[in-house]
Backbone:
């Protein structure tokens, strides 16, 4: 593939946020900056968080640190905030330093912690970049204390199951096209640049993997804009037609 | 709508299986008769059942009684087997009578039982005919004993979210088309006859409604044919492309 976005080693996590052309596009998004909490799914994500006072938290794919700082400002005693992107962490440290937040550059895949290290693990829209979901969930289960909480958002299986190219059908009657739903694994897309690597998983894989790891699923949310939001952002009417994200909260038994 | 299949009163459950033209088609399906356990999802459904010895069970939408008799022959002490179709119950009583199975003609919507009446509630591919899922799940929760089990299969949200007409796209590159995913409610389809009334619900509605009713979700399965099955039934390759069913087991807290 002739693309500057693809990682030369397909076995290694792709560090797309450090790719200048991608970053130039991504950094224009409202969710990138101070508007992060206005993103469609973020109020729902925050509603899934437990009471944060005194919790030791891990933020997987912290980006520019908005959620990490929110956790610390809401009472978490310690936040380990991890991202693979030096660009994002540079921003996080410059703009969102906090004495309880420790930023660390690493891929989610290479992390190692002692068992029961955290009371809370959060991840906002990062799991679809991780190839080995089963291993990820096994790790998180180990890192959580009994009774600890996992809250994450990820791209919805219906969103990642689209064919290469655009999911929207250009012709009447329109609609959203999916295929090869049960063929899990890498699906690249063009998002600011070509070759952005994401991983499609089925819904059953997303949920059943949690259940098989002693994680009790508490909530499942598919964000959808309400009428007031649609008045302000009519372009989000497309989010009534197919789900883009799924949010899950689970508790370690 | 000019169709003999629609119920004249849209508020009442549609009794499609008593419609002769529908029944003539449906009764030709392998899953209708002795081959019921060969249907794609049935081995997985049976794998979700708890140990049946001594259980009092309710089968919602029992059809010709195959699953009800399986429960009784596997040790259930009592099976209340409910279906709205007189035609199906006639067959069930004629071909699958069992001293522990009580067949009853009723719609799922009109049922009433005392609290904690059952240890197990099962339903095979009937919930997508029920308009009010929230009420259904509230009722089932009440009817179950604490620790009791619900096992059901239903049409997958991706399957019910197709536009009117065929989900498969006729032209290259093909695929499965969905739209208006978040518009829940009635979607009619042509299945042997026109106007077969089913209800689309989102995945979050399917699962989160259970969680909000003190039902702990234990397993979520999307059936897919394995290689051996595909060798015998190459036409089932379409089930790799989009999910048709979802199976869920939940336990009452």
Residues:
């Amino acid at each position: 593939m002739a693309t500057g976005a693809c990682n030369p080693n397909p076995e290694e996590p792709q560090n797309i946020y450090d790719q200048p052309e991608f970053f130039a596009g991504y950094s224009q998004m409202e969710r990138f900056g101070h508007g992060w909490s206005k993103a469609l799914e973020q109020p729902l994500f925050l509603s899934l968080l437990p009471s944060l006072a005194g919790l030791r938290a891990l933020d997987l794919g912290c980006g520019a640190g908005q959620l990490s700082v929110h956790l610390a400002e809401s009472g978490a005693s310690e936040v380990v905030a991890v991202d693979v992107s030096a660009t994002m962490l540079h921003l996080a440290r410059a703009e969102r330093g906090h004495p309880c937040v420790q930023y660390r550059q690493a891929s989610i895949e290479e992390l190692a912690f002692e068992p029961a290290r955290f009371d809370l693990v959060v991840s906002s829209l990062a799991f679809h970049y991780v190839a080995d979901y089963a291993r990820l969930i096994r790790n998180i289960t180990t890192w959580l204390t009994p009774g600890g909480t996992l809250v994450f958002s990820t791209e919805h299986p219906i969103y990642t199951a689209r064919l290469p190219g655009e999911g929207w059908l250009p012709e009447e009657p329109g609609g959203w096209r999916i295929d090869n739903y049960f063929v899990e694994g890498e699906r690249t897309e063009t998002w600011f640049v070509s070759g952005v690597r994401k991983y499609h998983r089925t819904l059953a894989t997303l949920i059943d993997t949690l259940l098989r790891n002693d994680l009790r699923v508490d909530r499942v949310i598919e964000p959808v804009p309400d009428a007031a939001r649609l008045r302000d952002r009519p372009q989000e009417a497309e989010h009534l037609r197919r789900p883009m994200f799924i949010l899950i909260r689970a508790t370690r038994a």
In short: Residues 133-143 of chain B form the longest helix (11 residues). Residues 1-8 of chain B have pLDDT under 50 and may be disordered. The first strand of chain B starts at residue 56 and ends at 60.
